[in-house]
Design goal:
The longest helix is centred in the last third of the chain and has 20 residues. The strands form four sheets. The protein has a four-stranded antiparallel beta sheet with strand order 4-9-6-7, with no helix packed on it. Helices cover about 30% and strands about 20% of the residues. The N and C termini lie far apart (about 115 Å). It has three domains: about 55 residues, no CATH class; about 130 residues, no CATH class; about 70 residues, no CATH class. By secondary structure, it is α+β, with helices and mostly antiparallel strands.
Length: about 280
């Protein structure tokens, strides 16, 4: 029922008919009021459908709230071992009896964004340094995707870094440590860490002059006097002790032997060895 109908119902005459004069005046009043004063806002129950729809579209509902940005995927790589390329390098860990897992390689970069861990491992391995070993003498720019090499090492359950008592070079030690950053759950992580500790011990003994390799050394200044042996079977191993004038004090050529041992005296001027490999104290 409109506003006019509600007002007419309250102004009927005694005869039951509305007064024309009063009705006309009332109509004019309503018209005047309608022009001079805005009508009150409709309540929620009386609001037209179009207004309600407009209000809904202006106020986002819970379902239209934007979702947080998706987390970027890390760099992923396809690793191949013995001609096999599983979806995840972890699968190699259960295939030690079926495959040769001594040498693997990353054959494909599947894309993604490097994570903080991947970048840290890349730097720990020394991959962020310029490569000056190019056959043409060119320097290759560091590439973060080189971190894929660490994933291939993570698949090498029987790889070089897992061999017992394996003394690693400084560069190899960096790479092995970086590999464990990528796969701390590596099946032979304990052995790799043992080799890292062993390598530290070897480096210290080399600096102290109680472990050395083929070459010529000044006694006392470069190597310490004492008894030394080579830990492997000798194959055409030659050694000699020399005085200050270059005269041979003692020498030996071992074509084949299970244990080669020599005593170096403080009075010796130098010691020379070739084809023997590593010398160390018992």
């Amino acid at each position: 029922m409109s506003v006019m109908n509600l007002r007419h119902r309250g102004t009927q005459t005694a005869s039951g008919q509305p007064s024309r004069v009063f009705g006309a005046a009332l109509s004019a009043a309503v018209l005047l009021v309608g022009r001079s004063s805005p009508s009150p806002a409709p309540s929620a129950a009386e609001a037209p459908t179009t207004v309600s729809a407009r209000t809904t579209s202006a106020t986002p509902s819970a379902s239209s709230t934007p979702s947080p940005a998706e987390t970027a995927q890390p760099l992923t790589f396809t690793v191949e071992c013995d001609g096999t390329e599983p979806d995840d390098y972890h699968e190699f860990w259960s295939l030690t009896k079926e495959l040769d897992l001594s040498l693997c390689e990353d054959v494909d970069n599947n894309g993604g964004e490097p994570t903080a861990m991947q970048e840290a491992a890349w730097k720990r391995a020394g991959y962020d340094q310029l490569d000056e070993d190019d056959d043409f003498g060119d320097e290759d720019e560091p590439d973060i995707t080189d971190v894929g090499a660490l994933y291939s090492l993570c698949a090498e359950v029987e790889g070089y870094y897992t061999k017992k008592n394996n003394a690693l070079s400084a560069e190899q030690a960096k790479e092995a440590a970086a590999m464990l950053m990528v796969c701390p759950d590596f099946p032979k992580a304990k052995q790799v860490r043992a080799n890292l500790g062993y390598s530290t011990k070897v480096d210290r003994e080399i600096r102290d002059g109680v472990r050395f390799f083929d070459g010529t050394y000044r006694v006392v200044k470069q190597i310490k006097p004492g008894t030394y042996f080579i830990p492997k079977t000798a194959d055409d191993c030659y050694w000699e002790r020399l005085d200050r004038k270059g005269n041979i004090l003692a020498n030996n050529l071992i074509h084949e032997g299970t244990r080669v041992e020599v005593r170096i005296w403080p009075s010796d001027y130098s010691f020379h060895a070739e084809g023997c490999g590593e010398w160390r104290r018992p």
